[in-house]
Amino acid sequence: MGAKAKIETQAVHAGEPADRASGAVVVPVYQSATFESLPGEEYDDIRYARLSNTPSHNVLHAKLAALCGGEAAVVAGSGMAAISTTLLALLENGDHFLAQDCLYGGTRGLLTEDIPGIGVDYDLIRGNDPDSWSALLRPKTRLVYVETMTNPLLEVTDLEAVVAFAREHGLISVVDNTFASPVNLRPLELGFGVEIHSATKYLNGHSDIVAGAVVGSAELVGRITHKLNHLGGSLDPHACFLLHRGLKTLALRMRQHNENGMRLSEFLVAQPAVARVRYPGLASHPQHGRAARLFAGCGGVLSFELAAGVEAAERLIDAVELPISAPSLGGVECLITRPAATSHKVMTPGQREEIGLTEGLVRVAVGIEAAVDLCADFEQALAQI
After folding, report:
1. Rounded to an integer, what is the distance from CA 53 to the centroid of its chain?
2. What is the layout of strands, in order, in the sheet containing 301-306?
3. Which range marks the domain in which residue 217 is found?
4. 7, 9, 118, 276: most buried, per Cβ within 10 A?
5. Which pLDDT band, with edges at 50, 70 and 90, does 137 fall under?
6. The domain spanning residue 221 has which CATH number?
């Protein structure tokens, strides 16, 4: 397969072993904790599931590196395992880093509850205010951490400014690209040093595993893999198999997520009961121009507020029929949630207010259903409130 193959082709063929096991078209599950050692092998040649180097892992690493445009990749037991291991591998006692102020709730909890305990300090930055970042630099600032799009407000980070800032000050730039996926954005091509995914979401796409992934240069991924080996956050071989299967349809699924996100957003904007819709694909979005320039699509996550407030939001969640009331995103089914009561419940009301997250905000993660059916369902639900 040529290096310039389209992402649809890479998703199917990249990383596949040349020697198919017993002629199998699909890479089997290598449900083995350890593998036979060969004469003359060094310690680093030992194949062991905790070391993330079994055939089940290796095919994933090669495919993910190709899809994201990186030199190397490693999968982990969850998105949070990928995030925490990356920070622990690239930071040490006494270091300082900058992190975006509106982060996924689990990441925010890691920063506030765990990171200070290992002697690492951080400051929060506004992702769209690059002029304010330099004032927070310290002699031991080592890294800047952002997300492609924030959850659940869908702000589009000034990614190009992050890359330029990191280069100017000798920092490692790390981005959580879960919300965009490598189909809609390849941050490593923008100049980011490390790209992280909660592979639970779009990469797997079927809401049936928990996994994480890290992609980047061979040197940085090597450091992260070394730390992961010590922490034991490896991905189970059967989960590797499911993620490998899910990746093959990533490009196809993302087209439908993109279309559904756009169509439902446009529908909601036109409804009198809806006060505001947040989706980067809308011309009304404050970073729409940036999204249109950088992204091939804006994904399947949107959020909105009802004019009647939080009680109306709860009634809407009860009234819709297709969306399931549950957190997460990226699966084939539509999910709906009120972040103040779920993903961001760990934050205080004051903290939520500070980032603009209202109590009545509703987040929808559309699946791959027909857009016309999703819109019809929300229409009937809105009529009930």
Report:
1. 23
2. 274-278, 301-306, 362-365, 335-337, 324-325
3. 7-247
4. 7
5. very high
6. 3.40.640.10
